[in-house]
Amino acid sequence: MTLEAESHIRAADVVLLILPTALAAHHVISLNDNFINLLDLYENRTRPETYKAMAEAIVEQVHQGRNTCVVAYGHPGVFVTPTHAVMRQLQEQGYSVRMLPGISAEACLIADLGVDPAEHGWQSFEATSFLFTQQSVAPTAALILWQVGLTGEVSLKRFVPGERGIDALITCLQQWYPADHRVCVYEAPISPLEQARKEWVALDELNTVQFKEYSTLYVPPVHRATLIDSRLEWLALNKSDLKGFEAVPAAPLSPWQNNN
């Protein structure tokens, strides 16, 4: 949490919490003890109903004229549906609203796996949406599937994969990747006391893994990208003009890419 974020929490009339751990909540409450825990709204609701109730609770505080601060885990704009709904509504109503960036699971993944989006390219999808829709995948670029632990779960009430969700995802991914391609189930630590989960398995063994609702799947590139001569011609270039430039090959698995 940045010093700027802490200053807004201290200055707020009320702080609304969307935090998964008591440790994280304790830190925020130490800065401002006038708080409302929005996680209580999950009880007896589907996920969309919960997000709607959270948004309504936030807007209600603003409409009461209170300087309102919402604190969410990770990045408040990444897979936090209520924050976007609230921003749209309040901005349309003429209120001043600002989102401060946080550290997302994607940022943690980049650090923990030691990967660089600039090396191969970067593709990112929500897992169930990826499975249900027609997508163009470049196996020369890294692929990130968010919320793989909820793949195919259509009741929107449970926090586990759908009955055949992971099997279907394996079948889908095998359109572009071989069965023995190594993929990583990743979970960012949600407290300083935890270690990141980095579990590498063959793609066709993904259905043997235990998932959490916030598990992310990292699929590394399967082969290198190649230069396209016709595109070089658009720039009146040829390969000899590139002076050492070449498509970056997919890096081999490193020793640390094992089950933890």
UniProtKB/TrEMBL annotation:
GO biological process per UniProt: methylation
GO molecular function: methyltransferase activity
UniProt entry keywords in alphabetical sequence: Methyltransferase, Transferase
Pfam families named among the record's database cross-references: TP_methylase
Segments forming domain Tetrapyrrole methylase: 1-147
Listed Gene3D superfamilies: Cobalt-precorrin-4 Transmethylase, Domain 1
Taxonomy, superkingdom: Bacteria
Protein name listed in UniProt: Tetrapyrrole (Corrin/porphyrin) methylase-like protein
